[in-house]
Amino acid sequence: ATVQMLAEEVLGVNVETSNEGSSSIQSLFALSACKDPTNEADRKCPAQKDPSPRWHVAMEVWTYNAYKEVNLMPAVPWYDLEDLGGVGYKGKELMFVLKQNREAGAAQGLSLEYYKSYNTTFHEPWKFFPNTSAIDTSKLKLCNATRVVDIKFSRAY
Length: 157
Hints:
With about 160 residues, this protein is mainly alpha-helical.
């Protein structure tokens, strides 16, 4: 929302936003004018550069280098996206799974430290984790009752 407001009010640009797709990779295909960026089987990428692509900017691309892994270059030979740098904070893509959960999955042949093990079409990873009903809600607090809303704390973070 912040980038949208700045682009519209400061730069005078008309902005349309979308949360289509669920990954940074899909946003790169969308920027490359592929008509169906979420369809791994056929993203419907154009044979030549589209002079008027629908999407022009992707914010928070967490897997910038991963485009090489999905063979984006052969699918879109004229690919010319440019990494314009960070937006003011650094982040890492990480996944943490408790040892007891990993071991329970491993005992049944499921490697829970590997993200593809969470594909529910082929696996049942929920069997190795407690249900949300196991959360002691008496220990939860509203955001305004925590340091999350403390601007001094947030800036230091």
